[in-house]
Specification:
Elements (H helix, E strand, L loop, with lengths): L3 E4 L5 H12 L3 E6 L3 H13 L4 E5 L5 H14 L5 E4 L15 H26 L8 E6 L3 H4 L6 H20 L5 E8 L6 H4 L5 H5 L11 H12 L10 E4 L4
Parallel strand pairs: 1-2, 1-4, 2-3, 4-5, 5-6, 6-7
């Protein structure tokens, strides 16, 4: 039976790299995206050109209706879900906590935390043996920021990723006897477009000297860790984290 994976926020960066690698490993891939249809279609086209199977589904996973639409599309177009990668997330312009307003916090926590809970809920309903499923795996994309705090830049983003860490541990224990493993990766300073959202596209090059390995990471390096956690090679790993931050 073909394995099916949903990857949220998969039109760029870590999500796109994960989609390509998952397809190369035999998964049928749902490339979820919010607005950039052209980028999502480009990922799908690349997968199909290599002989894989993929669909692109536009859905705002910060909203319950969007999540329902996403998983319904997967049910109809691909089949029975076997894996979820909660990758979608945002950050906003660098600022201190004493400059943040409630609207910003609500946007960050909806996109980075609520989305993971809602997508995990739908995945569990489909994969859990308690619900008649045959098991599966979830990988949450957290961040080294959850450990480091991102003072003076993105404490709200860091806090949202701390919540993702807690979700990972709690859900892993909740569904451990239902055939589902739940793990997380915590990338550090990775070369992706997300840094431009914070107002500093070259942030990785600025901070890489503070990384023991003296370099930023590549999305493909994170994707490899995600695919390992999804695989049977990680069959005894649940509630665990892989830190991908060059030693930071």
């Amino acid at each position: 039976m073909k394995k099916i994976v949903v990857i949220t926020g998969a039109s760029r960066g870590i999500g796109a790299a994960t989609a390509r690698l998952a397809a190369a490993r035999g998964y049928a891939v749902c490339v979820n995206y919010l607005k950039n249809h052209a980028a999502a279609r480009a990922v799908v086209a690349e997968i199909e050109a290599a002989g894989g199977q993929a669909i692109a589904v536009a859905a705002d996973v910060a909203e319950e209706a969007g999540v329902a639409r996403l998983f319904d599309a997967v049910d109809r177009q691909l089949g029975t879900l076997s894996a979820l990668v909660n990758n979608a997330g945002i950050l906003e312009t660098q600022m201190r906590v004493d400059e943040m307003d409630a609207a910003r916090l609500q946007r960050i926590f909806a996109a980075n935390v609520s989305s993971c809970f809602l997508c995990a809920r739908e995945a569990v309903r489909r994969m859990s043996t308690k619900h008649g499923g045959s098991g599966g795996a979830i990988v949450n994309v957290s961040s080294a920021a959850s450990r480091l705090g991102s003072a003076g830049e993105y404490v709200d983003y860091a806090a949202s990723k701390g919540a993702v860490d807690t979700l990972t541990i709690g859900l892993a224990r909740e569904v451990a006897t239902e055939g589902i493993r739940v793990n997380a990766v915590r990338p550090g300073f990775i070369y992706t477009d997300i840094h431009a959202s914070g107002g500093e596209p070259g942030r990785v090059d600025r901070v890489k000297e503070f990384v023991p390995m003296k370099r930023g990471g590549r999305p493909e390096e994170v994707a490899s860790a995600i695919l390992w956690l999804l695989s049977d090679e990680a069959s005894y790993a649940t509630g665990t984290f892989i830190d991908l931050a060059g030693g930071r």
